[in-house]
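Me: Here is a favour to ask of a fellow structure person. Could you put it straight underneath, so I can go through it closely?

Assistant:
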Amino acid sequence: MTINETINGIDITCETGEYFFSPNRVDSGTRLMLETVPVREGDKVLDLGCGYGVVGIYAAKQLGGDHVVMCDILEDAVALATDNLARNGITGARVLQSDGLKAVEERDFTLIYSNPPYHTDFSVAKAFIEDGYRKLAVGGRMVMVTKRLDWYKNKLTSVFGGVKVFEKEDYYIFLSEKRAARAEKPKKNAQTMSKKLQRKYGKRTKEI
């Protein structure tokens, strides 16, 4: 089946299928996410969990395909999103088959969009947030839309140090910014010397 949608003045045409999320129209949460946090000039965008490709196509029509990477765990989604890019006249965008962000090598995205799948144990969302943080450039933004508030608010705050929450209709749109690169944690096999020994020998670690 074919859907024709306009989001923020951007016309999008996609082939969909009954086994894909929201096959008959662009999901309301996705639309609200894109309307609430638009792309900026020069952004490098990751469409995380792209499905049949609406978010990536929306971004590529404004930024150019070479500014967009899309990924999904399903081979069928990758194939359909690739076809839909061509259907919309977009070249240069890359679509990867990836379990979360495992196959995504770049660490310089300035914007990650995700409408994560709903799982009661939040395992997928947890990986999206933690790995997404590592794939963002400093100053990069992660945007997620869900119908759940507390877990996402707490997790994004824990990882990013803060989050803005927009409540629209029945959805919550979360916006977090990577403020600085995290310091690497000490190796587990290193033990810090006591303060007395540090004063005597200088601050260092000793292997255990």
User: Anything to note?
Assistant: The chain has one domain: 28-207. Helices lie at 28-36, 54-63, 75-87, 123-135, 150-160, 195-201. The chain has a mean pLDDT of 89.
